[in-house]
Each structure stands twice: as C-alpha cells, then as structure tokens.
Specification:
Mean pLDDT: 92
Strand content: 15-25%
Distance between the termini: 40 Å
CATH class of the largest domain: Alpha Beta
Number of helices: 15
Number of strands: 16
CATH topology of the largest domain: Carbamate kinase
Strand order of the largest sheet: 3-4-2-1-7-9-10-8
CATH superfamily of the largest domain: Acetylglutamate kinase-like
Bound molecules: adenosine-5'-diphosphate, aspartic acid, magnesium ion
C-alpha cells in the first residue's frame, strides 16, 4: 500500500456463478463484508447471473429470425428467475422498489425484442443493447441485496463510467474518459463509505450501449482497478484460482499459487477461460496485483498474479486449450514466397479485422490459424487471387505456458513424447519464449491435456503449486 492513496481500494469482480442465485449472492455479500472488516474499501463489479448472457443472445437471435414468440418466452423465463431471486433476497419497501426496477428493465427488453422482430434485422449495436440487460439486472439486484444485508451500497450504471469506442460486440475503453468518469461517479461514493456496485462487460459510446466482448466483466474490473489506482483486483469465480489446467478437463489440476502477469496473459489469450485475455493489461501498467479466488471456498488463498513471481522448478505453470479454430494453408503456387507475398497475405487478414493465432511457414507455403468463422469465406476468396488456399475447421490449439522453460533443454522432446499417440498439425514456440503451442484435432484435446498434465505435474514444485489439495483429494 506504500505511497498509494488508494491502496485500500479493492476492486472485487464476481462472475456469473458467484451471483447465480440468492445463496450465491449472500455468499458474495459476506465476502465483501470480510474485506471491509479488514479496513478495505471494495468496489464491486458483477457479471450477469450464470447463463443469462447466453439466454439473451438466444433471445436476440430468435427476434432476428422473426421468432417473436421464442424471444419473448426466453425473456419471460429470465424475468421469473430474477424476480424469484429478488423475493428471496430483499423484503418490504426495498423489494417493492427492486421489483419496479426489474419490471421496468424487462419491459424495455421485451419492447426491444419486439422491435428487432418488426424490422427483421439484428445489428451488432442492437445485439449489444439486448445482451447488456444481463449485467444491468444483476447489478441492480446485487446492490439491493447488499443494502438489505447491512452493506451500505450504491448501484452505479456502468455505462456512465466505462466509456468506449463504437466497436459493438468488442468495444475498446477510452482510458482518460473513464478515469474522469470514475472521479465523478465512483470516488465520491468510496469516500463517503459506500460500496459502489457496477455491472461488468457493458459500457457506452455517446450514450449508446456497447459491450467489451464475452467474458468482459474481468476486463471491466481491471479497467476500474487501473483507473482508480486500486491496491488490488480480485476476480472471484467458481474454482480455487488459476489451475495447472482446466479442472473440468483434468480432475488432478492443481492451484498455481503465484503466476506472472505475462504467463497469465498468455494463458488467457490461449483459452484459459478463467480470465479474460485483456484483463491483465490495465493491471500490469499500474503494477496492481490481481488475485483469482473462489467464491465457494473463500478461505482459499487463490492465485496471485504479480510482476515478478518466484522461480519454479517445473518448466510449465499451466496448460490451456482453445477450440473451434481453423487452419488455413496458403500455397504460393507461382511466386515461391516472393518478396512482398507475406505482406499481401497479412494485409488481407488485416482488412477483414481477423486476428491470427499462430503462423508457420515453409519455402512455398504459409499456414495460419484463426478463430473467426464469419470472415473466412471472404478472406479465402481474396487469398485465392494470389495463392492456392485450403482450410480445415474443428481444430484446437494447446498451449503450455511457463517462464521457466527459458534455458531448459529437452522440453520439446518431453512434450511431444507425452503425446506421441496424437496427431499434431502445426507447432510453434511463441516469440515471448514462455509458451509452446501446437494444433490438434478438436476431439483429441482432452486426451492430449491429460497426458501432458501427467507428464509435467506429477512432482510439482510445492513453492508454486498447491500440492496439499491433491494429497487431501487423493486420500479422500
Ligand atoms: P466466471 O463466470 O466466474 O467469469 P468463467 O466460467 O469465465 O467464470 O471461468 C471459470 C472457469 O474457467 C472454470 O470453471 C474452469 O472450468 C475454466 N478454466 C479454464 N482453464 C482454467 C485454468 N487454467 N484454471 C482455472 N480455471 C480454468
Ligand atoms: N456476462 C458476460 C458473458 O457471459 C460477461 C462476463 O460474464 O464476464 O460473457
Ligand atoms: Mg469469465
């Protein structure tokens, strides 16, 4: 906290499962109370309740294809769910006010869905508006529940704070405008001892609602943490922290106690859903530690993401996987990778705003992987003017991340002998030197990850990994 006047401010982000029902929201309130007892000033960022974003997207899609009945049925289901949770959490006048607010929002949502059906077209801008209701509703409800349970809290509409550009579906924050908005809308609340509660993921551009991309509530927390110069950012989720791999794929996954910003960013980018890829940046720039914690097991220490982690005896900290990728093989039939050919290829991807995950080249060809399917036909059509093009979908990228692979020899051999029974398509060692990645068929991902996990995490370094949990689990 030294020298930082806002070192006592902690931005706490609760994901969908941490606010999924009344029991989860009460757990959240008690975690926040615990932080206040330690003299900290929490600023709360909440996701939509679990699965609500998916349902809203389905409702928007139904409206877009003229299925008004289905769109309104989905909205009705969400209305019932929110009102039930509201009744379980608050009572009296507070409940009446909350019910009025929720009905007001759902009426607006229904009107919007009817409007989309009427015009028969779903634009990115309208889709953002529909999907924003998830966080708008959850944040109003959480603020109400906190107040009911003795926490002085104030709801802040995140759209007045997270000011962005107009890139609907994946808007970019305007840092200086956000800092100014934080000073007027959030700082006075903190100073008056109130707990501000904001919805994650949503923002606005000139008063029009935008979103930061799927999983974007983590990003909201980091933007707010960075803007406030907070002492810490806490990402509360449904697992004990960043694990050695997705625990849903490998039951033996261990908690990583400390990880570097660089490693965490790499993992997030390459598919570890536990953190949004862009989360780390605002925190790195201001050197704010980020914690990943479990709201169902609040006593657990979680994972601390820091600039300088301790050295680790194991080469890797974690294994991530990103599915639904496509490999595009571009063969320069006439020009044998003549001067300017690569530029032409990358310019085409750039023009279609399509990010490339991995690249490998040979004398006559270049292979790239992308995760965007919408722009693929147009890209391939343009590429076919300069080369022969083939593409294969349903591929996955597996990425092993660890700063301690630097300078260790024989690691690649160990990786590939662990998965010698699996067909590998493309291999790359990132320029950052802290990841090794390769492509496999989607259906081989789980098996490949389990084999790699067995190879690299059988005798984990206890200074970096929580080895006690696995002992307890295997004993029990
Ligand atoms: P939230 O709703 O809290 O944002 P997410 O579902 O976005 O939670 O992220 C948490 C999930 O990320 C976990 O349930 C887990 O299945 C998945 N996950 C993937 N990779 C990892 C990893 N390396 N460590 C921890 N969790 C991971
Ligand atoms: N609710 C949004 C989503 O599901 C944002 C988030 O939860 O981070 O993608
Ligand atoms: Mg998430």
């Amino acid at each position: 906290m030294s020298g930082n006047p806002r070192g006592h401010v902690v931005v706490m982000k609760f994901g969908g499962t941490s606010v999924e029902d009344s029991a989860a929201i009460l757990r959240t309130a008690s975690i926040v109370r615990g932080r206040m007892r330690k003299g900290l000033c929490p600023v709360i960022v909440v996701s939509a309740m679990a699965k609500v974003t998916d349902t809203l997207l389905a409702a928007a899609a139904a409206s877009g294809r003229n299925d008004r009945e289905e769109a309104l049925r989905l909205s009705d289901m969400l209305r019932t769910r929110h009102l039930t949770v509201a009744r379980e959490l608050v009572s009296g006048d507070r409940l009446t006010t909350l019910q009025i607010n929720l009905h007001h929002d759902f009426d607006a949502l229904d009107e919007l869905l009817r409007g989309i059906t009427a015009v028969g077209e779903l634009t990115e801008r309208t889709s953002d508006n529909v999907v924003s209701f998830g966080e708008r509703l959850s944040s109003v409800m959480v603020a109400g529940a906190f107040a009911e349970h003795g926490l002085q809290s104030t709801h802040v509409d995140a759209r007045t704070v997270i000011l962005t550009d107009a890139h609907y579906g994946k808007a970019a924050p305007n840092e200086s405008a956000i800092e100014a908005a934080l000073s007027t809308c959030v700082v006075p609340l903190i100073e008056s001892g109130s707990v501000p509660v904001l919805g994650g993921f949503i923002g606005s551009c000139n008063g029009i609602t935008t979103t930061l991309g799927r999983g974007g509530s983590d990003y909201t927390a980091a933007i707010i943490g960075g803007g406030l110069h907070a002492g810490a950012i806490e990402i509360w989720t449904d697992v004990d922290g960043i694990m050695t791999t997705d625990p849903r794929i490998c039951g033996d996954a261990l908690r990583v106690k400390t990880i570097s910003f660089e490693e965490a960013a790499e993992l997030a980018y390459f598919g570890a859903k536990v953190l949004h890829p862009a989360t780390i940046l605002p925190a790195v720039q201001k050197n704010i530690p980020v914690w990943v914690l479990n709201s169902r097991n609040a006593e657990n220490e979680g994972t601390k993401i820091v600039a300088m982690p301790p050295p680790c005896a194991s080469p890797f900290k974690s294994i991530a996987a990103k599915k639904r990728l496509t490999i595009i093989d571009i063969v320069a039939s006439r020009m044998l990778l003549a001067h300017g050919f690569l530029k032409k290829v990358f310019d085409i991807f750039d023009k279609h705003q399509c990010a490339i995950d991995m690249v490998s080249t040979s004398e006559v060809s270049i292979s790239v992987t992308v995760d965007s399917r919408e722009t693929l036909p147009a890209i391939c059509e343009e590429l076919s003017c300069i080369a022969d093009v083939k593409y294969e979908s349903s591929k996955a990228l597996i990425c092993l991340v660890g700063e301690d692979i630097r300078g260790q020899s024989g690691i690649a051999g160990k990786v590939f002998s662990a998965i010698s029974h699996i067909n590998i398509r493309m291999i790359s060692q990132g320029a950052s030197e802290i990841n090794m990645s390769f492509m496999v068929n989607e259906e081989d991902v789980d098996e490949a990850i389990r084999s790699l996990h067995n190879t690299f995490f059988t005798s984990p370094d206890p200074a970096v990994f929580d080895v006690e949990v696995s002992t307890v689990a295997s004993n029990g």
